[in-house]
Amino acid sequence: MTVVPILLYHSVSGDPPAWIRPLSVTPEVFSRHLELILATGATVLSVGEYASILGGRGSLPSRPIVITVDDGLADFREEALPALRRAGIPVTLFVTTGFLEGLADGEEAKRPSGPWLDASELADLRGDGVEIGAHSHSHPYLDTLPAEEARAEIARSKEVLEDLLGAPVPSLAYPHGYHGPTVRRLAQECGFDSACAVKNALSSDSDDRFSLARLTVRSTTTDAELEAWLDGRGAPVATAREQARTRAWRVYRRGRALVTGRRSEWS
Length: 267
Hints:
- Helix 1 packs parallel to helix 3 and helix 5 runs parallel beside helix 6.
- The strands form three sheets. Strands 2, 5, 6, 7, 8, 9, 10 and 12 form an eight-stranded parallel sheet that branches.
- The protein is globular.
- The termini are far apart.
- It has one domain: Alpha-Beta Barrel (TIM Barrel), CATH 3.20.20.370.
- With 267 residues, the protein is an alpha/beta fold.
- Helix 6 links the parallel strand 9 and strand 10.
């Protein structure tokens, strides 16, 4: 079995908004993380490349790593991307389309404080080699929604991005990592080739292509923790079988959503 650490970042900033601060790292820390990655001699893949290999189109290098960034805050362009360019490391950016600046009237979703990337920037980011994936339109708890509402969220994000990029968008990341059999099926029906969850576990060559395990990098993540992940240690290896406690947690959140009417962190 080949173990694959998929790192999940959200914000790279010295002064992030309060709501994302626990999931933010400073530019200095991010640059140090990239140095640690380079020191391993690993091959960094995009999500699309990794998913293609899992789908039988190629073989994994001996030490694969994947780097992802969720949401679409403007600090990706200002801080994360320059560091990634200097290091020569690819990245997959998952964009919540309704949070983008500069969308057409009626396309915006309720969002937390930014600043956020502008819709007009995405084509340039893709031209700079950034793989762009979808992260829903309004960042809801997809697995608590009725199936048709979840489908609309997934499909809308794909359509908005493909209109902006003029290119296919093959990868999805579930907001908060929350998903289930229905959400995975909807992702496939909407035309995605892969989807990322969270799980805070290591992925592997036996992982589910529509439930890829990722490791959340937090403001409190130490260099030692990161080095262990990069070495395939310090976290469990994800299994394809969903745990009973995960199903129970989903049932609880669905019930809570029905009572409170909350669709996301910001509704």
